[in-house]
């Protein structure tokens, strides 16, 4: 870690060298509260600092001084000569910290980086998302920046329930993202839900050919939709911002990383709806969490909290809801800077040997569901929801 920190300082210091011959007096504002940043917080601040825009020479000197104090303690090196302006400025900054304890310096470093991150987050919002979004989508907001393509389900008033149009738009967005120059792709939801799963009114749009034809075309749509996730070539991350239901949960087994807000829940009430598992969950869930836990979810509809889903391996990490967006996007921006080809190839190595099997499972699950959708159990459950007699 000392090496990494050294690189941070070396990376920033040339700016001071080039542009600052006059160094303002340092006024260090010590945090009176929370004087105990952990080593982990400090290391995370050291990583975060690399993502910040140039904060100016004064702040860079503060960071330098706090880093030295936190890692080496009070300045005890000889004072550089009067003409060695840069090193003298650094020495002065460090020396000005006097006998400040290492822990306090560490805390002040963490506080300073955190303040810089929030102001750079807000100042980097140059254009509102509405101006940056890709055209052609009605149910999604799709944006590409910082080497990240973000696909956001955007029917917040309907809890991001997935209509036929949304299935088709997600497939289009994934196909476009697989070819664009982004390194990673993220699926998330707008509003308080991640997604309430299949929009149950999809089942009301019966064509003149009848209900069997509807079940058949729905099975084809489902199969094509899930195939897009099986085949997606780049790292695919779910940022589960709130409760997730049905197919929005099952396909998580096909993602590479799943981050969840502490407010998220994971619910697959298939039996309640007279349906059966899809999204390859009949295979991925037992593999991820073991058959007994998978059965509780997929057969009995047990709803998991974010912490439970994480303990069972469906979720990679849970973040407090209040800091979810900030922490997840900071993490993802750092990941998106990794070499994209290496990430794609690593994903292939991890996933490719399963692909054929997953396609076969998807086909089988879709075939079984096609029959289920014609059953009385399913018809009654859907009617009960649509006539407001039942909710999950
Ligand atoms: C077609 C091919 C592919 C098929 C693949 C199959 C997938 C299987 C599944 O995904 S199964 C899961 C299906 N989802 C559900 O059963 C969820 C149904 N919704 C609810 O139970 C509740 O809405 C809730 C618990 C998600 C949220 O309850 P809450 O009280 O907080 O909010 P409201 O019920 O008032 O919802 C706000 C409006 O949103 C509409 N809505 C929410 N979810 C759905 C949905 N899945 N389908 C259709 N509509 C949904 C809800 O009706 C409200 O609309 P309104 O304001 O017009 O009344």
From TrEMBL:
EC number from the UniProt entry: 5.3.3.8
Acetylation among keywords: yes
UniProt key word NADP: no
Residue segments, region Disordered: 116-135
Protein name, per record: Enoyl-CoA delta isomerase 2
Residues annotated as transmembrane: none
Domain named ACB: residues: 38-122
GO cellular component, one term: mitochondrion
UniProt xrefs under CDD domains: crotonase-like
Species this chain originates from: Puma concolor
Lineage, broadest ranks: Eukaryota, Metazoa, Chordata, Craniata, Vertebrata
Keyword annotations of the record: Acetylation, Isomerase, Mitochondrion, Peroxisome, Phosphoprotein, Transit peptide
UniProt record similarity statement: In the C-terminal section; belongs to the enoyl-CoA hydratase/isomerase family.
Catalytic activity: (3E)-octenoyl-CoA = (2E)-octenoyl-CoA; (2E)-tetradecenoyl-CoA = (3Z)-tetradecenoyl-CoA; (3E)-tetradecenoyl-CoA = (2E)-tetradecenoyl-CoA; (3E)-nonenoyl-CoA = (2E)-nonenoyl-CoA
Domain of life: Eukaryota
Pfam families in alphabetical order: ACBP (PF00887), ECH_1 (PF00378)
